[in-house]
Design brief:
The complex is a heterodimer of chains A (139) and B (117). Chain A contains five helices and two strands; from the N terminus they run H-H-H-H-E-E-H. Chain A is mostly helical and 139 residues long. Chain A has two domains: 27-85, Up-down Bundle (3 helical TM bundles of succinate and fumarate reductases), CATH 1.20.1300.10; 96-139. Chain A has a two-stranded antiparallel sheet. In chain A, helix 1 (28-58) packs antiparallel against helix 2 (61-70) and helix 1 crosses helix 3 (74-95). The longest helix of chain A is centred in the first third of the chain and has 31 residues, at 28-58. The N and C termini of chain A lie far apart (64 Å). Chain B has helices at residues 7-35, 46-53, 58-85, 91-115. By secondary structure, chain B is mostly helical. Chain B has a domain at 46-117. Chain B is elongated. Classes of the chains: A mainly alpha (139), B mainly alpha (117). At the A-B interface, helix 1, helix 2, helix 3 and helix 5 of A face helix 1, helix 2, helix 3 and helix 4 of B.
Amino acid sequence: MKPSTAYRQYHPKWYRTRVSTLWWSRKWSYLKFMLRELSSVFVACYVVILLLQLHALRGGPDAYQGFQDWLKDPWLVILNGVSFLFVLFHAVTWFNLTPKAMAVRLRGKRLPNVLVAAPNYVAWLAVSALVVFLLTRQG
Amino acid sequence: MAKRSNEPLLWALFSGGGVVAAFLLPVLIFLYGLAFPLGWLQPPDYERTLELVQHPLARPILFLLCFLSLFHWAHRFRFTLYDGLQIKHLNLVINLFCYGGAVTGTVAAAYLLWTLP
């Protein structure tokens, strides 16, 4: 709060406890929240790699080979391994939001959360399998 | 009249990007980041990749993937900085960095996809 802030006369001063900058490191559920939010950094990081891939693809066969060799750099493999864990975390937490966002009722009874989230996982599996099929099918 | 907020639009982009990232990024990072470089699976070569990208659906999907994922990052990271570091007073800088970065990446994606052979 700025010291110059003007108060009305007799206006009650708000009492707010100061929150430490590291408030999220104190409790596992808070840390989990922070890690979930940080997954977005790895999402953006992958988009940058994808843009570099498109750039290499535009550059011709040699440039593309160079990109594929660059991906083998141990540091990049480590980064991608970490990214993979973070985007998995993002995906699971995102799919599990569905039952929190909507209450599905069947014959007046609320469906259990697992059943509401399940279609997400089925679709996820199908999309992933299709991508693997498209990218590993030779010719 | 009250000024209209653009928050709903940013939220829509955030959740759209959340969906796209959840469905596509795990498998893509697994393949290109781990399985291909470590030799677990055979990657598609230059010709095959080009063939895949030339499918009529490929470019729109890749564009949406970049566009929505970047805005997903921008929105979420903005609030991570707000809540995690409590630096709300740097509002303008953070917004410029996050949404400016997302716009730059989206333009780059459009340009690259448009000029691909």
